[in-house]
Design goal:
With 446 residues, the chain is of the alpha+beta class. 38% of the residues lie in helices and 23% in strands. It is globular.
Amino acid sequence: MKRRWAARLALTAATAAIVVLLVVAGLRSVALVGVGAAGLAVTAAGVWWVLAREGAARALALMLATAAPVAVLALYALAGLLWVVLVSLALWALAVSLGRTALAQDTGPAHVPERPAAPPRRPFLIMNPRSGGGKVGRFHLADKARAVGAEVVVLDPAHPQDVAELARRAVDDGADLLGVAGGDGTQALVADVAAEHGVPFVVICAGTRNHFAMDLGLDREDPSACLEALTDGVELRVDLGFIGSGVSPAEGRGRVFVNNASFGAYAAVVQSPAYRGDKARTTLQMLPDLLTHHSGPRLKVRAGSVTIDAPQAVLVSNNPYRMGDPAGLGRRERLDSGVLGVLGVKVDNAVQAASMLRGRHGPGLTSASAQEVVIDADAPVIPAGVDGEALSLAAPVRCRIEPGALRVRLPRHRPGVPRGKPPMNWRRVRRLALTVGRAAAGRDTG
């Protein structure tokens, strides 16, 4: 019943958005839409030139990208129709929100098979005191972990240690659970050891972004809550991504990634020694040559039946990222689908940059999924960013996924991962709105 009424309200709001334009502006409404679309296209083209040009050309492009939306709003205001446009846009946004709510089958947490788990006898945790601006110390994680029986090694920033080797020694000494309080790069290194030895792994979200923890549904605001997995936990299995040089598994197991591996412009920028000191300046200095293929390797990506030739940026993720939900960008609804997600961006000129306004339907964006992805190049070495760590790998680079490779121990009570709303489909919304009676709950599942 609620879904049916949401669909009806969505159609009502969409109709009202169009009626407001037609009644108040008349035939000028066509011009209003055209001017707005043109302004967006010019702004997108200006942003492209800002990124792909240098010197005076970049300054002029920045002025264009700034002036275009201001000019559009000024034209609307001079015509006395600015309020009409704003009201119509607000109604349309409301219609889309209601429509996607109506199409959502379930707004609760995505279901992932899990089972109760007995507390570990000898948990071993590695903690990085510098991660997340010092969350390990701020939340007293080491003391709290020791209080529930865990052996804790707090890394010494002045004396770098091999965390994977520490984890292996702990397993050899009898540890029956491994865990990390640190960033995603460190999480991946120890998760690899846990998967290799078949012991469960605990994620303590003490890093800066904690993307892996977010997609596991953990409480990123309170890292100490993750320690409840040691006393009242459940266990589930998630996939792991592997990356390495070569085209066959026989050439090595590769390095684990829990989130993603990036190639192209971003990966090349983070390789620069100057990036850590001044990220913005370094990025703006390097992007023009990278985006126009004047520097950096020319990539070719093969993901199943999909081939992407000469993309400027490629992201290969351990399970696909959400695409249809702007609020869920950067999230993965599942970590156990058994496939890699692939996003490729290819924009060679301002016209293609403007077409990116179409989102996932734009010709410059390629989205795919596959169990194996091969990235080749016209250079012997390909820069890569793996879970935020800068690497250089011999071409070709092979990414693969190992389904259910990692046993993850989670707190029984945790926020969970909200299910994303589906892409907007007006035909389905109309069908749902017109459905009568009990059939509304089940007739529009396709």
